[in-house]
Amino acid sequence: MFHIWYNRNIKKEQEICTVQIRTENRIMKKRIKLLKAAGLPLLLLAGWQIASMSGCWSAYVLPSPLKVWTSFFTMVRDGVLLKHIAVSFRRVAVGYAIAFLLAFALSVVAFIKEQAADYYGSLLEFMRNVPPISLIALLILWFGIGETSKIIIIVLASFFPMFLNMKKGLCSCDTKLLEVGRTCHFSWVQCFWRIVLPYAAPDILVGMKIGLGYGWRAIIGAEMIAAGSGLGYLILDAQQMSRSDKVIVGIIVIGIVGILCDKAFSWMIKRLTHGGVGDSWD
């Protein structure tokens, strides 16, 4: 009895040690990955500091990292930066939602009736090759410099990556799965919601993720041309006021907000697809 009890304790201790080793290895890998990711930004930051201290460029052209940080802190404290972020994010959210609804509706039409592409295919292909920013002048003439023109730009930028991926996902559904649905006496609606849509979910989510990035870039360009608020306007206004520190703050904030949106979307995708789609660089 003592021998059996002793062997059980030994096995339990071995299992605990194994779990601890695996946990420590995971933590170590995360730390190494973090150090690798931070290496290049820290190197660029050091080079930036050295270049600003060398005197080769004036503080007007290349402000020091400390000056940029001070401007960032001041803009956050005054609420100016958060206001511009909120304005840009609201525009992207509205335009992105409209683009999603249009892309999903049209992709369902393409799935139901492939011949319908004969009517709208050439127009979509034409619009897909026209940069949304090139339409700003015309949109301003039609709708003014209000929110409508900017939202249309976001819709045009976000629509096509979402539509193409949604169409691919829906139309590539395995016919054998549909036959199984018919065997189970599923109606067309049941087949769509229980078979086609889950099958196309990875492609749909990838298209949504890409469309979000396109929409975010498009609104920054639109705000730099015709806007009175937003991150794009913040950068243009700072450039006209010869505040290069604020220009750099705006650029850094755009990148950070974009990364946070991408990470949030990746997390949501992993939760919905149980680890299906990872980081953009994986």
Low-confidence stretches: 278-282
Oligomer: single chain
CATH architecture of the largest domain: Orthogonal Bundle
Largest sheet: none
Classified by CATH, the class of the largest domain is Mainly Alpha
Order of helices and strands, N to C? Answer: HHHHHHHHHH
The share of residues in extended strands comes to under 5%
**Tally of individual domains:** 2
Cα(first) to Cα(last) distance is 53 Å
Supply Rg. 26 Å
CATH superfamily of the largest domain: MetI-like
| Helix/strand class | mainly alpha
Describe the fold and architecture.
- With 282 residues, this protein is mainly alpha-helical.
- The protein has two domains: 1-56; 65-273, MetI-like fold (Orthogonal Bundle).
- It is built from ten helices and no strands.
- Helix 6 (147-171) runs antiparallel to helix 8 (188-225).
- The longest helix has 53 residues, at 2-54.
